[in-house]
Amino acid sequence: MADPTRIVILGGGFGGAYTAMYLEQRLGHRGDVEIALVSRENYLVFQPLIPELISGSLGIVDTIAPLRRLCPKTRLYTREIQTIDLERRIVTLAPGFRPRPLDLPFDHLVVALGNVTGAAGMPGVQQHALPFKSLGDALHLRNHTLHVLEEAAIEPDPDVRKTLTTFVVAGGGFSGVEIAGELNDFVRQVVKDYRGVDPSMLRVVLLHSRDLILPELSPKLGRFAQEVLARRGVEIRYKTRLAGATSAAAVLSTGERIPTRTIVTTVPSAPNPLVASLPVPHDKDRLKVDAELRVEGHDRLWAVGDCAAARSGGTGDPVPTTAQHAIREAKCIADNIAAAIDGRPPRMFRFESLGSLASLGRRSAVANVFGIQLSGLLAWWLWRTVYLLKMPGLDRKLRVVTDWTLDLLLEQDIVQLKIDRTAAIVQEHFEKGEVIVQQGDFGDKLYMIESGEVEVIKERPNAPPERLAVLGPKMYFGETALLTDAPRNATIRTLTPVDAIVLGRGDFLALVSSFPELKKIFEGLLQSRRHEEEPM
Amino acid sequence: MADPTRIVILGGGFGGAYTAMYLEQRLGHRGDVEIALVSRENYLVFQPLIPELISGSLGIVDTIAPLRRLCPKTRLYTREIQTIDLERRIVTLAPGFRPRPLDLPFDHLVVALGNVTGAAGMPGVQQHALPFKSLGDALHLRNHTLHVLEEAAIEPDPDVRKTLTTFVVAGGGFSGVEIAGELNDFVRQVVKDYRGVDPSMLRVVLLHSRDLILPELSPKLGRFAQEVLARRGVEIRYKTRLAGATSAAAVLSTGERIPTRTIVTTVPSAPNPLVASLPVPHDKDRLKVDAELRVEGHDRLWAVGDCAAARSGGTGDPVPTTAQHAIREAKCIADNIAAAIDGRPPRMFRFESLGSLASLGRRSAVANVFGIQLSGLLAWWLWRTVYLLKMPGLDRKLRVVTDWTLDLLLEQDIVQLKIDRTAAIVQEHFEKGEVIVQQGDFGDKLYMIESGEVEVIKERPNAPPERLAVLGPKMYFGETALLTDAPRNATIRTLTPVDAIVLGRGDFLALVSSFPELKKIFEGLLQSRRHEEEPM
Description:
Two copies of one chain form a homodimer.
Chain A: E1 5-10, H1 14-27, E2 33-38, E3 43-45, H2 52-55, E4 64-66, H3 67-70, E5 75-77, E6 81-85, E7 90-93, E8 102-105, E9 108-111, E10 115-117, H4 125-128, E11 130-131, H5 135-154, H6 158-164, E12 166-170, H7 174-190, E13 203-207, H8 219-231, E14 234-237, E15 242-246, E16 249-252, E17 257-259, E18 262-265, E19 269-271, H9 273-276, E20 282-283, E21 286-288, E22 301-303, E23 308-309, H10 323-342, E24 355-359, E25 365-369, E26 372-376, H11 377-390, H12 394-409, E27 425-430, E28 435-437, E29 445-451, E30 454-460, E31 463-471, E32 476-477, H13 479-484, E33 491-494, E34 498-504, H14 505-514, H15 516-532
Parallel strand pairs in A: 1-2, 1-9, 2-5, 9-22, 11-18, 12-13, 12-18, 13-14, 21-23
Antiparallel strand pairs in A: 3-4, 6-7, 7-8, 10-19, 15-16, 16-17, 20-21, 24-25, 25-26, 27-34, 28-33, 29-32, 29-34, 30-31, 30-33
Helix pairs in contact in A: 1-10, 5-6, 14-15
């Protein structure tokens, strides 16, 4: 018997999961075909429902479906992808428990890797703004929101409190609008549990680059959405983009700075680095595909969903990057792979949009379905019903109905599940004139300047502050307070925008105790600074 | 007007939360009393329901209740505690967003800090066994369990696969039994979704130091529990303790090693470090309290729950450390603080147990209620009903009923939510004769030996392996593969038990790029090892 034909699908989003499901329908009964799916998670995220996780209206597992149940005949690899070798037709996966990479040879390869939230050209956004793509991102935003409210409730300084109760969402498309609507409802509802936080201090700001939100829909629906959001307290800034971010402020394209601890970014999209590095034709950030959804010039390489720059075979119109279209592309690719295996000709991909829906938060939405425009409660009902019918599997439908029903009856939850990943070594961005370290504060971090300059200032009672030094790239500060346990003995302020590598106290101490050489370096620095009276 | 009396409660478990709730009932209407509660989380965890999270029978937020709703008149601080100064009567909290500690002065202090899972005298247990105390621990175990099943499904080596499908639970008391029962049901139910994992390979092993599990209940119920668990496939090892752990094996007190990637430990308990360091009388690991629940010799210092070594004022019997008793102690402390404020005499704490319940997994339990012993389905129904009635708030009761009902109808979920904290710098423990690094593997970690010795072995085709070197404390290995991207060029095997500090690839590379000095050190080492032919 000949070797089976190996189909490898990369990515477990709508494009990848539905390709596997449709392939199983067409080829799953045949012994001469093997289907493999590589996905970071073992579940499909039901992306349109993700914003509902902010308020907790939906349970976490209700917004996702296990891939093993959706495509039981497919071999699932829940690993990261290390490399894609088109020449040798091998995908290499990152190691699991044992440090051995895993090679997956393929005959057909389907790339369904989506895109990522980009931050190019916006200093500090990568480091300080929260993306909103994955389930983890949604949970992180929920927890972060509750965390800032917890802190606001015990913060004595009103200016700092204001920073904590301000939320900035960048992008007025589908995601940005749904996130702003949901976040706004959530904070205004739960604030009553936070004594000491004045509800009138809450600010949710939506930044949008054009003069009407939801450009995907008609101006009429966009205006309706604007009115609903504004009435509920969302401040919309038109013709304004997010230009940069620090840990304590959003920097807008207008030059304005909004002091905040919470920035959510939904724009712009950047290509998945694996997709960007593939040596095949690209159309901007995406893979160029032909009318049959093959990557141009490659016979058995296919692309689906957000990473594919597809055009309708009939009209040549670009295909919108939504779940609806990813699913229909998946069906076409499954058809065409089955045809290729059997030596039949492929079919062209054609699409016609069924409609668009956007939720505006509790009991309001806008919809454009088969050319009919709806808004308000009816659109909201339609929005829930449509997504409910789309959920794979009866058990999930039942769970979601139950949650939605309970949600109508019960109060929103304010439990904060701490599930943040704690990276030991992070980058931080500071704008010009920011105070990084305040004399007298507790020393919790070590800083290494990557670019930019800071000044070291000694503040004294009854005397003007004195500049002790200027520090530049590759210089450290902050180690004194970490090594001696004393409070910060000087203030550090930026003279230019600064990027720095930051190491937390616990990791710093673990490092210096593990690496005696490092300890010597810092102790030497400590001595010399004491000597030169150049503190920190 | 005089300053208000400040009552500060440390810890948001049953003891702390109920003290706040009872204090609000007694003193919440008075302007001359301030109640503050310090808790790491903003919710009370309903501890007895935590094992149900393993299988996902309960939603996460159904097992917890927001502290702000339970005690709305109490000021909540969701911060870590840094120090307790009994002399100056000040508790210092760790900094929040800004690096400034927060001082909380107090008149009365209630210590409700519980205990922690200990690992003293068991090498490797701290590093490689999973504790099971918090909500996060339960979610971590669930995700870890799904992760090993995912890996087992794609692991070609049958020996390694066996390691992945073996689960060891240490401790045959309430928690250990409930965890083993729940985990066993869960893996045996979901394994059918994992093609390539043979259900007969699954092993769940429960280690118990005595010859009958559940010593808290009668021998009759203990034997019933043993029979149920054994029938469902749990292997129980009697008179056997967990003696140590590595990343790939549980070391038993009998000398046996069980190869496994999953060890859950429920014993022994160690004191919270903050409690241990308090300069007051201790009774073993706990605070010595008098019949009125004051810490001995301290007028306005109280202790409640697992951190208090309380005895019944009537009989002198030690008070069991269960939620039931913590709640009744909390009531007594609230009474006595109210009495102290009003100059009335305090009351003695007395208790009589209402009964004990332990779940054995799906639809079986054992119970001892008012002296009546129950087992099987009836005990299980009672178990659910009792805990349901204990849940604070109607909305939680409703949610839990719904989840339990759906759970009877629907299949168990296999979605793995990745929420693990990734520590950059971790400790690992290895037993004698273990291979730490295998020649030819991918280089993913740098090791620094803290104690013990390893040998460096070069394996060659058609020749016996050659020992190149022996490395000891404060020496590194593993940097070559990280710096050069080549596979491991030698094998490292332990000659003694070894403890090592381990740094992952990404963090190592971030570090050497941030600290040029460190880079120089490692590059020097690389050169010298090349020169001496002492690889790694």
